[in-house]
Amino acid sequence: MKHPLATRFDGAAEILAEIDARVPDTRDHLAETRATIDAYHPERLRLVVTDIIDETVSTKTIRLEGLDKKQLPPFLAGQYINVFIDGTSRPYAISSSPARLARYDLTVRRVRGGRVSNLLLDAARIGQVLITTGPMGTFHHNPLFHGRDAVFLAGGSGVAPAMSMIREIAERGPDRSFHLVYGSRDASDIIFGPELNEIAAAHPGIHVDHVITEPGTGWTGATGFLTAGTIARLVGELDGRMVYVCGPQALYPYALEQLTALGHPRKRIRFEANGAPTDPTVQSHWPTDVDPAAEVTVTAGSVSFRTPRNRPLLDALEDNGIRPEAACRSGECSLCRVRILKGEVHTAEEAKLRLSDAQFGYTHSCVAYPISDVELSL
After folding, report:
1. What confidence tens digit (pLDDT) does each residue in 139-149 have?
2. CA 82, CA 325: separation in Å to the nearest integer?
3. Burial grade of 100 (CB within 10 A; 0-12, 13-18, 19 or more)
4. From CA 231, how far away is CA 215, in angstroms rounded?
């Protein structure tokens, strides 16, 4: 429909004639937009196991490709995908390079009592199809905000996101320096050891130092824990460089203490979200007058069940066939957010809540523990 004022402008007739002569746009823009979103930010992926690589006695890399063999959604080095299996899910950092989108490599280490990690290590097979999310997570390197000279403190399988960052630098060659300080129990426990040393030898901007807590005969490198003295000796002055930390949960408060002792500012330290707290009762705001092992009743809609106070709400819901959307399982992504209609919960320090959540009763179920009988809105 032509605007009633259009003919009052000079040259209006020619312009209107040109518009009328145009080929009508019959594209389905909504469908094209949907396809783009699905390609770059898919809710679910169906990936097939194409290779299983033994890294150490306790660690394997599971290589995943798309069923259609097409390029997978892009990701930033350090991000993860969430794997759905056995009625639950777990996030795993992608250890392969963002420059190689034909595959995602997930490097999985055996965990004592680990439900999903041990299942993948013992039962995963080539040809198996796994359902995952697309890549996500905030633990990645952004040179605009994080600088071009980074330090990474890793422990155990926490080297996986560091490996992705290192492989990207090696393959894409950006103007970036990276110093990995990697703590392991013994030399045989080092994941990616030969490749890390090879990359460091070939790229002047990449430095790798191994620190062994139980050195055997012949080990000549650094030993002990990642103390302030060890960090300073291996890395030198931090000078405000961004420091990444990923590994067992016990590493996080320890690394923070050591970095603080070196005068490094907290805003220049980034911790990877790494699961619910091992023991929520040691946190200062856990009520002192309740038995953590005692059971309470959880009601979600028409379903009620009993669960121990010290079991995360998300795990308890999944145990009873209720599966809220979830990804990080560490209190960060908020996908498992639920509303507490009645009762009291302990929300762990790991939860990254919104400012309004306390006012309206929301919590992240992956790091929330029912203190009393509770009623939830999912």
Report:
1. 998 888 888 99
2. 11
3. middle
4. 18
Residue in this structure with the two tokens 């703590």, named with its chain if needed: 183
Q: What distance in Å separates the CA atoms of residue 347 and residue 3, rounded to the nearest whole number?
A: 58
Distant-in-sequence, close-in-space partners of 54: CB < 8 Å, separation ≥ 6: 60
145-165 pLDDT, tens digit per residue, is 888 999 999 999 999 999 999
Print burial letters for 309-338: b (CB count within 10 Å at least 16), e (below 16): bbbbbbbbbbeeebebebbbbbbbbbbbbb
- Under the banding of pLDDT at 50, 70 and 90, the label for residue 304 is very high
Backbone angles phi, psi at 343, to 5 degrees: 95, -175
| Phi, psi dihedral angles at 345 (to 5 degrees) | -125, 155
Q: Which is nearest to 208 in space by CA: 220, 198, 223?
A: 198
Under DSSP, the state recorded for 326 is -
Copy the structure tokens of residue 261: 């002792």
Report the amino acid identity of residue 352: K
The CB density around residue 123, as the number of other CB atoms within 10 Å, is 10
pLDDT value of position 1 = 57
Cα–Cα nearest to 192, from 177, 180, 204: 180
Are the C-beta atoms of 113 and 71 separated by less than 8 Å?
no
Residue 198, SS3? Answer: helix
63-104 confidence digits (pLDDT tens): 999 998 889 999 999 999 999 999 999 999 999 999 999 999
- How far CA 248 is from CA of 238, 245, 252, 272, in Å, comes to 23, 10, 7, 10
